[in-house]
């Protein structure tokens, strides 16, 4: 009778379980090849053991650039009763391998005070990810989250081998990143008087001021903390729409220069947008230059979505700008604005990313993040873009997981349950000129003010998403089996997760089920 397969999430590409275990305790030592010390440091931090270096240590961390078949993120892991060998071509692969080691240990090893002796299951694993971009976006603009919470999520993403944390730092309802040349962005834009209760269109407000923003040091330290775990932090600064907090701080930036507005207290799409006068682009460049100093990410997200152009249509300045640029009308200023900002990033060696339905307004150098329809992903690929798929019907984790009466408030819309997330697949476009570089889950926080509510919405759906992002071949029944065991790890880590099973729709009074 074969040994049961370990319950790992995401499922490795190739895994064989062997009898026996390797014991980790205070006497265990590491043999560390040159360049592998970051992995050793992460392992020590994770298990709470000294794991000192020794030339003949039985636990070997080997960095070998000749292992080209593993790419930059793959690894090989062999655990026998007497020795452990973790190999990779790049240190990032070793970091991912350490996360697999953590999952092979008992869940008690994840507690703040793990046992003094840990048993590591014997396995042979070769593991290479399906996609180079496996992301999670957290919206800290609608509801600010403190740095310890962000660090905790970095650890949770790393455990599941997700490698991008996109921070949605600015929106109509708040500006969370300091910019030295524009201090009012956080002094004014980082605060709002109250928050809407319920979905867009509600007339109820909570009457509670909401505020918060990060220091430059907090953000640079977060970036370093994430890098030590194989995660890139990608900043998102919204423009030209979703910019009301910035305009509240500096009214001269608006499409109606000098018109004073407050930081928005509502949810939904606001019609307050940046103007197209030259000082606005000076502002955008100054903000982005500071962003580049803090975030070394190759990609910088500049938003670009949900941008009503009614204020431009009513603006003599905008109409004159559209005519001077030879554009068909003020609607075309949207693509023109993004192109100008994107050129600034490209000149500095970074790749601009934008939300876009098809990418038709954007130059091919932009990476496109598609979110509405799979067909939009195919169109963007045909146009030659690098594309990240963030399909809302499978990857927007702010939608409710069930329609049960006690389900916490979520984004209005159809339920996105655990199986919908795990079934998420990417549209194929074999003759496309572009490149599908990965997928990303999103958690907008209009309805999730607290870390506990964010936990509930994110997990275990983020486990399903990670399984799909790393290993697209994993079956739903096998994932369910592994999730049952994996939930003990989530519990040990204090994750207040949602339901572990897909929901059964509750019939409406008419007898019809929710679609």
From TrEMBL:
It comes from the Bacteria. It is an enzyme of class 3 (hydrolase). The keyword Heme does not apply. Residues 131-472 form the Glycoside hydrolase family 20 catalytic domain. The keyword Transmembrane helix does not apply. Its EC number is 3.2.1.52. CDD domains: GH20_chitobiase-like. Residues 6-127 form the Beta-hexosaminidase bacterial type N-terminal domain. It catalyses: Hydrolysis of terminal non-reducing N-acetyl-D-hexosamine residues in N-acetyl-beta-D-hexosaminides. Gene3D superfamilies: Chitobiase/beta-hexosaminidase domain 2-like, Glycosidases. Keywords: Glycosidase, Hydrolase. Belongs to the glycosyl hydrolase 20 family. This is beta-N-acetylhexosaminidase.
């Amino acid at each position: 009778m074969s040994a049961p397969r370990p319950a790992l999430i995401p499922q490795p590409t190739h895994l064989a379980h062997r009898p026996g275990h390797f014991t980790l305790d205070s006497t265990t030592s590491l043999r560390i090849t040159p360049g592998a010390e970051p992995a050793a440091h992460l392992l020590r931090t994770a298990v709470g053991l000294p794991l000192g270096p020794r030339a003949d240590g039985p636990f070997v961390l080997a960095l070998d650039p000749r292992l080209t078949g593993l790419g930059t993120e793959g690894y090989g892991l062999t655990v026998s009763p007497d020795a452990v060998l973790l190999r990779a071509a790049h240190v990032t692969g070793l970091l991912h391998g350490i996360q697999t080691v953590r999952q092979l240990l008992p869940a008690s090893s994840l507690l703040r005070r793990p046992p003094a002796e840990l048993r590591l299951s014997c396995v042979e694993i070769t593991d290479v990810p399906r996609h180079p971009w496996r992301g999670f976006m957290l919206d800290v603009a609608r509801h600010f989250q403190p740095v310890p919470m962000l660090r905790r999520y970095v650890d949770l993403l790393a455990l599941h081998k997700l490698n991008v944390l996109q921070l949605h730092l600015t929106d109509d309802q708040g500006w969370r990143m300091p910019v030295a040349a524009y201090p009012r962005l956080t002094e004014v834009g980082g605060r709002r008087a109250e928050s809407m209760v319920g979905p867009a269109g509600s007339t109820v407000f909570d009457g509670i001021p909401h505020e918060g923003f990060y220091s430059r040091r907090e953000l640079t330290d977060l970036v370093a903390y994430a890098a030590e775990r194989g995660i890139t932090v990608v900043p998102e600064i919204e423009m030209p729409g979703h910019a009301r907090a910035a305009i509240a701080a500096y009214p001269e930036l608006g499409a109606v220069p000098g018109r004073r507005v407050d930081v928005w207290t509502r949810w939904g799409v606001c019609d307050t947008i940046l103007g197209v006068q030259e000082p606005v682009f000076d502002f955008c460049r100054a903000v982005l230059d500071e962003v580049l100093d803090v975030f070394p990410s190759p990609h910088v997200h500049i938003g670009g979505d949900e941008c009503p152009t009614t204020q431009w249509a009513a603006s003599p300045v905008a109409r004159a700008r559209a005519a001077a640029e030879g554009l068909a009308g003020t609607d075309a200023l949207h693509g023109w604005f993004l192109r100008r900002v994107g050129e600034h990033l490209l000149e500095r060696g970074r790749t601009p990313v934008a939300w876009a339905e098809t990418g038709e307004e954007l130059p091919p150098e932009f990476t496109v993040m598609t979110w509405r329809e799979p067909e939009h992903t195919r169109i963007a690929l045909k146009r030659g873009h690098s594309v990240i798929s963030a399909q809302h019907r499978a990857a927007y984790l702010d939608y409710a997981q069930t329609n049960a009466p006690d389900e916490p408030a979520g984004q209005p819309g159809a339920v996105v349950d655990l199986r919908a997330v795990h079934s998420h697949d990417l549209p194929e476009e074999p003759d496309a000129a572009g490149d599908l570089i990965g997928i990303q889950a999103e958690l907008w926080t209009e309805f999730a003010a607290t870390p506990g509510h964010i936990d509930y919405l994110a997990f275990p759906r983020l486990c399903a998403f990670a399984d799909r992002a790393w290993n697209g071949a994993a079956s739903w029944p096998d994932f369910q089996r592994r999730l049952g065991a994996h939930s003990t790890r989530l519990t040990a880590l204090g994750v207040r997760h949602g339901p572990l099973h897909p929901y059964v729709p509750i019939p409406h009074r008419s007898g019809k089920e929710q679609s």
